[in-house]
Amino acid sequence: MPTLGDRISDRAFRSLFALALRLPYERRVPLAGWIVARLVAPLAGYSSRVRANLARICPELSAATVHDLVRRVPDNVGRTVMELYSGPEFVARVRDLPLSGPGAAALEAAHREGRPVILATGHFGNYDVARAALIARGYRVGALYKPMRNPLFNAHYLKTISAIGTPLFPRGQRGMGQMLRFLKQGGMLGLLMDQHMAHGAPVTFFGQTARTATSAADLALRYRAELIPVYGIREPDGLSFRIIVEAPIAHGDPVEMTQAINDSLEALVRAHMDQWFWIHRRWKP
Questions:
Q1: Residues 38-43: contacts with CB within 8 Å, 24+ apart?
Q2: Contacts of 272 (CB under 8 A, 6+ apart)
Q3: pLDDT at 84 > cutoff 80
Q4: Is 9 exposed, middle or buried (0-12, 13-18, 19+ CB in 10 A)?
Q5: pTM of the entire predicted model
């Protein structure tokens, strides 16, 4: 049952985005970034969390760089959310993006041959760019998602990301069963791998322990699926993207495979510090 706070925050979000969606795409996306960076982030405590994470992980950064990232990180978040809510316009912009990187050929071959693939990614750039582009060109791509605490927000967010493509599998027993059947049938499954998991493997991210689920590796091994990191990197114009497909991660020990996923994401984050979700509580005891 939604609380009063759930209703107020959901109504505010809907009203704001309804107004923004009346603007041309090229104006609404930057506007959403500005609103989240300048208004939402300070009020929600995101700015202080970005500062704390950067101080812990990258203490060598200058004060000017940190100040810049405190603005640019939530700006990317706001842009991403608005892009997802822009539905068909967003898909039209990314559907024909070329697949670049050392794993592109392997991904295309798996699609042609109907073999299962685990697409490992993170909250970086716009994490739905690759899913939208692949589905639009006929790839069978599903994704696991975590239902949001606010049931009102979750309902329209799920509807929004479903418009980009399905199937989507909620975390939990029922969603897991559907997901496994899809994978067995040769589907491709997108997993966001950069959130803290209390019972995850004690692998590292940016040199510090960041407990990470081994689920991507476990599924790849169990179903003989390719494990391929893939990312949608935001270009300097703030509106366009490129898709990078990393080389498949070799099958072996699941913890070592999980570390390879973290290493892949870390390398890209170091190159594009403003595009990762530094708001996460990624490093916990």
A1: 38/71, 40/74, 40/78, 41/70, 41/74, 41/279
A2: 124, 125, 233, 234
A3: yes
A4: middle
A5: 0.93
